[in-house]
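ok so I'm stuck.
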Amino acid sequence: MDQAHISGTAVIITGGLLHDSHAKTAHGLLRKGKRFKILGIIDEKHAGSDASDHVEGIPEGIPVEKSIDAFINSFGKPEFAIIGMATKGGLLPRELYESVQNVLKNGIHIVNGLHEPLNDLDELKSLSIGEAKIFDIRKPKDFKDLHFWQGKIAQITALKIAVLGMDCATGKRTTSRFLEEQLNAQGHLAEMIYTGQTGWMQGADYGLLFDATPNDFIPGELEHALYSCWEEKRVDILIVEGQSSLRNPSGPCGSEFIISGDLDGVVLQHVPMRKKFSGFDHYHTNIPDILNEVALIEHLGTKVLGITLNGEGAEAKQLSEYRDFLTQKTYIPIVIPMIETMDPIISNIINQKP
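replied:
not stuck anymore, here's the structure
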């Protein structure tokens, strides 16, 4: 089985993080996906519950079990087990080695989106020789398959919109999906361009694994994905899933998307209660004021067509009050995607059509 044909029934390993934003891969796969049918979660900390108890916006009926053996005993054997969380340094935690070993011993394939290739671990190598395989998806393409930026982006007649964030782990991919689904429901042919491993796992057809791509090729790979999607599907609107942010010092990649993608607009995702960049509470830089970020995006040559709010750490009243405060300062439509439609932003996007 090659990577392009990976699909089937799956469980997700979340290592005690199902409730946490570090399990955003799991959350994304629970909300949307055509590559895998998710049957359950392996998470010892939350065993006995339902995934919907911990992840907003998903239906009930996805059980959480303490181990792969417990899951098989109750529900049968899935085809795949997916590593469904981000970890410090992108490494598989030692405490999960046994869980992954048990998956492989049961003849179940592992799909790994961590930075660390599991095929390189001696403890797992011998177990992936037989029926079960490890698929490390976060790795560069072969050199012959990479693309330099050529300027073909100028030929695309579809609108090119990116969902960028004020920080990493703000929900950019989820908002991109909501935008794609609601545009299509309203008769505007739209397609999301994935830029991370979860988008690929969800089954998106076009994109790149941003942080597994050599930097010199990122502009070209983005252009190639946008151009290929437009040429082959003749979509009306291309939606680029953003990565990290414009000013998070560990991943200031938003400007690359704006410039190399020749974007027609940006939807800017914000977590109002978050003051420091994720994982850098003691670093001297704060997340900038959102309207300052809007000005930066405009200086880079495109428009902010909508602001979307993630309610992490906020009570409903706090989030509503912040939206009211921001509404008084800007004409840009503001939406809370988890509880509202994207209609005001969609109207603004459609108005950009020539």
